[in-house]
Amino acid sequence: MAKKGNKKWLKISIVMLLILLGFIVFALSELAKIAKELPDPKQLLDSHQIKQSSKIYDRTGEILLYEIYNEEKRTIVSFEEMPDYIKKATISIEDKNFYNHIAFDWRAILRAFKTNILEGRVAQGGSTITQQLAKNTFLTPERTIKRKIKELILSYWIEKKYSKDEILALYLNTIPYGSNAYGVESASQIYFNKPAKELSLAEAALIASLPQAPTYYSPWGFHIDELIQRKNYVLKQMFEMGFIDNEEFERAKNSAFSFADQNIGSIKAPHFVMMVREYLVNKYGEDFIKKGGLKITTTLDYNLQQIAERVVGEGAKRNEELYKGKNASLVAQNPKNGEILALVGSRDYFDKKNEGNFNVAVQGLRQPGSAFKPFAYIAAFKKGFSPDTVIFDLPTEFAANNPQCPLIVNFNNHQIECYHPENYDKIFRGPVNLRNSLAQSLNIPAVKTLYLAGIDNVIKIARDFGISTLTDSSRYGLSLVLGGGEVKLIDIVGAYSVFSQDGIKHNQKIIVKIENNQRELIESSTDYAVQVIEPQYAQMINDILSDEEARKPLYSGSFGLTVFQDKQVAMKTGTTDDYRDAWTIGYSPNLAVGVWAGNNRQEPMQKNAGSILAALPIWNAFMKETLNKFPNETFTKLSTETNNEEKNSTSTIIATSGGEKPMLNGNYFGPDGIIHNIL
What we know:
single chain, 5-stranded antiparallel sheet
């Protein structure tokens, strides 16, 4: 029995061995096939891959806004001319065992595999400097097993053909560092305006930080804080490897940087283009947009963009002279489909002194002042009130139940302090209806409206309309209606566009379509239209904000800036108490435009430099030149039947046992005990 068992296991072992040998033969033959497809690494020193640039166009597909990686800026320098700092920084962050492995590092591969499994994503790579050189020089960025095998074979060949110093020199002369800079010499010249041999330790560590994600970590981009953090991580690795001592580490970690002025070549609409570029990098990756030859058609109307840039520049220059407000931003959107037609993020993208590359429209969190009021009023209308409802504009203490103000009291589960706001002109008007209180931007009636509507209801409506930044309702009190929560200009323009479309929200878009180098469609915009509030409530807001007679008392001598011949336009302004932010948001049925004015570092403007003086003239200048480019349309009128239904609904929702309250329909009890009509 034992012999039979041994024979059986012998047969199984032979079969297993034959299968293994067969697999080995097959694998070797496949490797041989793959190897035949590979170039000779001797070409490495004079090999130049053809890379097709990607181009960003306006909505016509004809006006070129920007060309991504249209050329490789590269200057070859010898290994001896490269500073030791850049060599050691690169090794520290990219390949610690560079001088000890043969082409690939199994420990690094296993470590990366473990990290990626634990984090559930590709969080760490295990490629050596040699592998990266092989990939960037000879291969495509596709992530396949076959491509990885090619990379390993080429890496092994390269290690056989070249010394470690030669490989490191080739790597440092060919790797992309962003902004079309290939190699450390070009990177040093572009970012620091000096040759690589003059780089300091801190500068070398910063340049070594870039190859992982050159666009994301760009010194001229949106993530400078992350770049500095990565630079410090590189320095820490250098210290732990013994390349620098503690004194050098601390000095370099605390070094301040002076980057060269950005030279990004020919570019139109730079804030918009950089927003598009970041979108492309996040979705498709650095390599794909660098080599893919994409044609990106955006939503930008370049004719409107030129007008926007001019009026923002002229308006901000005027504000600087008169009110010490150096900056302004503008967003124009098609409310019918959510397409961004024009976007100016700051007065001058290239004004380094005033952080001109900062995109206030998209990145800035600013308080909207009274421009937030319509969201409280529409919440009140939804709750059953109407534009005719009477409210008293009188001195009011909103923590009146607390005789020892300013102790904290509760309001709708939100803590507030003693609060008694005033109107912008210090005048109290007595009984006013909601129509006039909104049109004339009266503060006390607005706070009372928020109180009646409920702060959580108002925040929910604002979120539904597209304001993405009011995430923690416990932070806000009654001052929210006067602009106590930070918003983005691009969000509030999108939110106002919902009013113009009778409560329909369209997703904002910056891309029309993207085509590959064969002009095959790889992405096109999709319109998601959602009815976020019933039409009649949006129509009430449109009716109020487009009521020229109702808003006339507020604008006084500037009233002419709010009206346009033969055009129906709704609009609202807003100013923060300290004059840091001035806003004008306005819209017609086919164009929504918002303007912010202030300072990038949020210094207050000169006293009384509010929205009517600082933002309204810029908004008017843009609307005056652009409205005639669109067909004449009017807002949908709130029908008499619908209006009556709303009033009846109001009477039903809010009534006393003795009948409906007269204030809900425009009446109120006077001191004489007689019912008066507000009109």
